[in-house]
Specification:
By secondary structure, the protein is an all-beta fold. It is built from no helices and 31 strands.
Length: 432
Amino acid sequence: MIHIGELCIGGHAVSDDMLHWEYLPLALAPSEDYDNHEEGGCFSGSAIEYEGRLYLFYTGTARHGDEFVQTQCMAYSKDGICFEKYENNPIIAMPPNGYEKGNFRDPKVWKHKDKFYLVCGGKKDNLAKALLYCSDDLKNWDFVNILAESRGEWGYMWECPDFFQIGDKYVLTFSPMGAHERTAVYLVGDMNYETGKFTYDISGEIDWGFDFYAPQSFTDDQGRRLIVAWANAWDWMPWWKDWGPTYKEGWCGAFSLPREVILGEDHTLQFKPIKELKNIRQGKCSINDLIVGSSQMEIPAENCITFELQMDIDLSESTADSFTLILRSDGVNQTMITFDLEKQMMSLDRNTADGWSQGKTKSPLLLADRNVMMIHAYIDQSSIEVFADDYKTSHSCNVFATDEQNHNYMIASGGEVKISHIETWAMKKVIE
């Protein structure tokens, strides 16, 4: 059974497949002087099972006069439903000397050998730090070292840091504040537990989209490393407009599709949608050997509003400079995903998506020495998540198109594109 929570107040839901969720009573809510901030005091963290109990670690946020203060706190449960806050909270009352008390948050806890470790975000001298702590009992914590840090290239604050081993390597992920268009970064390297230092030689983007933030991972009962992110944006981001039109329906923010983290031979990472998504497929359409030119080709789909798309582009037989997927279109409003083969760039343009969304994402494409380009996308009522480069490149954005926007096309520029195979599936509803 997988448990998942929400930011600022401890919403709680459980699932057997990461797709169908059952809501449970709130796990945490502001109630104490260390987590009673008026805008929500139970900030995000992580969980670990130990000796038959489920322990939650979260950031308590409070206002002490004019000062904004964040501390690390713990709650626990015997049944995974009802939680009790630890009577001696906070377990980490302040960051090391010189660090900002109001930028000290998002604890991720794990066990290594016979000790527990915790990493959380910190800020000093306007630079981001990942702070490492160690404990024997989950209650008493000692500062070990700066696990990793920014020297300006990765911004001034790392939100929701995550740290895990995959294969023979270690991975640190975080969402950097002050790093412009970056929303979710990963670093791959080696860990020295004796010194508490992580050194890396690989860096990459988990997702280039506007609405993929604060991803957190865990290992499931199959041994997979799974990751899920918050599908929304913050008001400090360059593309921020407002919280969006979903308030009319009584909700704001959602989670991304769960993805499996896979370590490549070159130590870069793939983020592949979980295989359980195949269980909600229905109404398959499949076509082989298509040529797309300067005239729009309609993408075949039984449900043109909520569907999954997979296609293979034969690069060796394609002559186009670029091609574009035109999604959720009514002829005026539409989202355009462009693959520039000449410049090796990918972009998602939602400036004409729905009358509200705005912005254009962009990223490199990894086309060197490739004869086939795979594209995999999930399109629904409020989001588009598109994957390329064998799941090393993805763009996830919220798009609030109407039901009348029910056409999808593909068009090429500067030549033709050879599609060796294209498949689409309608997707069953998982939430009523």
